[in-house]
Amino acid sequence: MTQPPPTRSRRRGANNRRVTQPGGLDIVGIGADGWAGLPARVHQLIADAGAVVGSPRQLAIVPERAGQQRYPLPSPLREGLPGLMQSLGDRPTVVLASGDPLVFGIAATLIDLVGAHRVRVHPTVSSVSLAAAELGWPSDSFDVVRVSTDLAALRRVLTPGRRVLVLSADERTPGQVANLLTDAGYGRSALTVLCDLGSAEQRRTDAVAEEFAASPVAVSRLNIVALGLAGGPGRATVGGLPDDAFEHDGQLTRRDARASALARLAPAPGQLLWDVGAGAGSVAIEWARVDPRCRAVAVERDPVRAERIARNAATLGATGVTVVSGAAPAALAGLPAPQAVFVGGGATARGLLETCWHSLRSGGRLVTHGVTLETGALLADWHARHGGELIRLTVERAEPLGSFRGWVASRPIVQWSATKP
Q1: Beta carbons within 10 angstroms of residue 5's beta carbon
Q2: Are 286 and 292 in contact (CB under 8 A)?
Q3: Does 191 share its domain with 256?
Q4: Is 56 part of any domain?
Q5: Domain membership flag for residue 14
Q6: CATH code at 154?
């Protein structure tokens, strides 16, 4: 029998703050003012801990205590954390973080790993809040993007007139951001680097992106880059990007059919899509661009196309896309259950639609395209058995016809879409 998680009582002091009990995991946010900026109750919390975990810089801030074990955060973080947390057992543990650990910090990862019932978060003012205050930007007027050495996430938000705060990986990030903006046609964007926010060494550098790229300024490792984007072209996050936005070899769900499919797939934050027979990955990529919390698995049997999907995702800032190289339905085994499935090719493969329908979560959406008579007959049969919507899409485009213009029709596409009860 599965046992419920142990319950733990929590005493509250006169200030109505939680007090740590044995076996707890406390995540403490540290500002740029370091140890001196933490309240006395947090000083005591850290002193009483059996183990303290943090980066070398954070561990150096905290006074050492006899008998207390100290552990550096593993690298890579996500791969190393499970083993570290398991080794700590039920010792009262403090994990050191920066600012507000729940604002693009380690707290979300630890909550996913050990469960919210074990975690208490002790935040300080986040660097995002400090940056907004310095700039005079209301919280609803900008987007926040966290980057590592890969800046792909920034590409998703490149839109003229948009404000963005980039949470830097290190002192190299501002120059990398400036180069990316310049290469993408956003070189005239306003770029402000805010260093060591909240400390006595706080510093601000204002520049234009292309000028900063040409003559970068040395900055602190702890920095945030604020952008006022100017330039173009912008890429909409509404389904239906131009076909030439994708690198492809002709195996591409075209713009109008793609927009129709995405309307029925109905992307929502936090949901997962399977894009089966992904080709250039256009449906998966557009799904992931709707919201940074949207995730997609693009399944493609051709390894060359699979590599192309990864390039397209990086170019368009679709960081939520994972590429699986293999033939469906075998390649679908072991994948997390999706809320939506798009079958853009290969629907007649034995057992493919059955596997997709069976794997789909209740209330999930399945959209399938076909261009052959055989696929059309199969989809008509599935429509008869499961209901949904069966339509045929034909797009006609005006093209030169001698000295005039005429309508040229594309190959009709049969689209079946249904929601699983």
Answers
A1: 9
A2: no
A3: no
A4: yes
A5: no
A6: 3.30.950.10
The stretches of 218-368 forming alpha helices (DSSP H) are 255-265, 282-290, 303-315, 352-359
Positive/negative CA dihedral, 405, 406, 410, 411 = negative
Q: What is the pTM of this model?
A: 0.81
Tally Cβ neighbours within 10 Å of residue 409.
Answer: 9
Is the peptide bond prior to 233 cis by the omega test (within 30 degrees of 0)? yes
Q: How far is CA 270 from CA 102, 112, 281, in A?
A: 17, 14, 19
Q: What is the pLDDT along the chain (421 residues), one digit of tens a residue?
A: 444 443 333 333 333 333 333 457 999 999 888 898 899 999 999 999 999 999 998 999 999 899 899 999 998 888 899 999 889 888 899 999 988 999 888 999 999 888 888 899 999 999 999 999 999 999 999 999 998 778 999 999 999 999 999 999 999 999 999 999 999 999 999 999 999 998 889 999 999 999 999 999 999 998 999 999 999 888 888 889 999 999 999 999 999 999 999 999 999 999 999 999 999 999 999 999 999 999 999 999 999 999 999 999 999 999 999 999 999 999 999 999 999 999 998 999 999 999 999 999 999 999 999 999 999 999 999 999 999 999 999 999 999 999 999 999 999 999 999 999 9
Range of the domain at 147: 129-228
Which of 355, 335, 334 has its CA nearest to residue 343?
355
| Rounded distance between C-alpha atoms, residue 290 and residue 271, angstroms | 11
Domain total in the chain? 3
Distance, in Å, from the CA atom of 117 to the CA atom of 103, rounded to the nearest integer, reads 19
Q: Which residue has the tokens 């630890």?
A: 110
Long-range contacts of 76-81 (CB under 8 A, 24+ apart): 77/106, 77/109, 78/109, 81/109, 81/110, 81/113
* 217 and 187 in a common domain: yes
CA angle at 363 for the pair 359 and 366, rounded to the nearest 5° = 60
Q: Are residues 164 and 305 in the same domain?
A: no
Q: What is the DSSP letter of 35?
A: G
Query: How would DSSP label each residue in 172-187?
Result: THHHHHHHHHHHTT-T
CA distance 259 to 388: 18
Q: Could you tell me if 63 and 97 lie in one domain?
A: yes
Measured over the CA atoms of residue 320, residue 325, residue 328 and residue 331, the dihedral's sign is negative
169 and 189 in a single domain? The answer is: yes
138 with 120, same domain: the answer is: no
